[in-house]
Amino acid sequence: MKKIFALVLVVVFVLALFAACGNTPATPDTPATPTNQGTPDTPSTPDTPDTPDTPDTPDVPEGPFAVDDKGIATEPYEWPLPLTEDNDTVLTYWWSTYSPQYIPAEKEYGETDLPLAIKAATGVNVEWQNIPNGSRQEMFGVLLASDDLSDMMHYATAYYPGTPLQMVEDGYFVNVLDYKECMPNYLYQAKWADPNDKATYESVFYQDDLVPVIWSLWKGAIQTDTGWGVRADMLEKVGMKLEDLVTWEDFHEALKAVKSAIDTVEFPMWMSSMIETNHYWQFNSFENVSVITTIALPIIYWRDGELVMGCTSEGDRQYAEYMSKLFSEKLVNPDWQAYFFGQAFSAHTYNNETFYQGIAPTYKDTNKQTNDPNCDWQPVQKPLVTEDQVVHAGTVRSRTATGNICVAAKNHDVELCLKWCDFRFAPNGWELFAYGPEGLVVEKDANGVRHNTEWALSKPDGMELQGLMSLYTASRLVEALMCVEDSMYLNEDGHFAMEAIEFWTNFDKEHYDRAGALPLGVRLSTEQSEEVGKYRADLITYVAEQFAGFVDGSNPLSNWDTYQTTLDQMGRQEVLAIYQEAIDDYNAKQAG
Q1: What confidence tens digit (pLDDT) does each residue in 102-132 have?
Q2: Which residue of 59, 129, 140, 165 lies most exposed, with the fewest beta carbons within 10 A?
Q3: Residue 123 Ramachandran class (φ > 0 left, ψ -120 to 50 alpha, else beta)
Q4: How far, in Å, are 109, 232, 269, 272, 336 from residue 264 at the CA level?
């Protein structure tokens, strides 16, 4: 019955998509970095070091690896290869790439080096179904409505009309815990690799008895691997230094000075339509969480002891007030809503039109591509209200990254799918996905030290290293794998990137305690999720439309009180009350 009900929801959803004829906001073409997005109704995760409920002494039953009393592996396991000698079974993998331009025109992706190397190692035949980014949401709805899902699907949690719990309860996707013997390495990483890492445990274990998603996991400690930067050469021309940029007022003065002094810079600050990147909050020092999205409810968090919704709190109003002032002074690109992510306006960056924007750790490459030999992008701290401020509002990252795989219940071979996925986390498998086939873009020298290969650094066929990595290694934005920071930085300029990551990470450690974040273990029940669903779509649309106008001044802040009244009429307080119930349930469980 649940499956029938879900099908009805999907049919309505698909019909709505077709009826919209492109007016419905499209699924973003590129997800934000980093991060476990979960489902729209899932709060973000804390980094509190509490230990999950695990036994003190693991059991060691008969079998290839030690397990605890729940049957979960307590040690890594090297899979005997190949995983199968069955040449007839072909698994289907619903997959995407954010760099389709790098796939050779004469080949399908499955015919390129990495998929061929995976096939050679595992013996598993996989049909890589490359889905266009802009079509994923619609195509997923069609497949779900026809009950014809691929064996393995990425981003299913983002497109399924319900929670991860419902995905399993409705019979469409498997609970990984029902196949623990097929996923020893992934479950070990989530539960036993660091028993004190409650954030990652709660990211992976939706409930103690439910693991619906196979997420990418960072191999090392969590780091802030993206941030914002400024043109230090432009800053020097106006008599300022990087260390002068601390507070919002400091940044404001720098923006005005650069606009006045640099002829090519009409709008010194450039941003994109979401404003923020989930979990990498750049502008939350007003105790706000001001990310604009058309596919998820605003982030729910604590502010001054009160449960609030992002883009609607007093902190969000203060942020919008400050930004509208910058827009009125023509300090920010007025077409900001035309760009989903910063790379989309890279032509303006290379043409010396930008001074302050989001940058990648590989900013040295941007320096080289810009039409100015003196270009000097440098990482910069986040603006604070006061110099010694510690920011509380936001979310907390776990070791999970954005990429993920869900395994369909209706499947050619569920166990083989899960083993194939687990190989990505195995001691004898993870490097293939993180660094690509040995000797192609990364190689080990005689001392076992990794380096980017001369071939990869030579820009073969005009391809930069980033493009080569997108083709020859697995993407943490799309797939499930053990993620590493250094794969693109194993060269003479690589230390600049690692230093930028260290800079952003250290700033967050000093100025961002995440005290306002909700634990990831705060989950909505099916009934609670359905109740929130009554208000969700209208709130998402209204907030996205109204708050964007407050930010750029097209919607005057004199309308803020009306905005608040309308939000409550649309069900904001009901949604917050439901989340409070979920928080109370979580706290009771922790206390018990």
Answers
A1: 999 899 999 999 999 999 999 999 999 999 9
A2: 59
A3: left
A4: 41, 15, 13, 20, 18
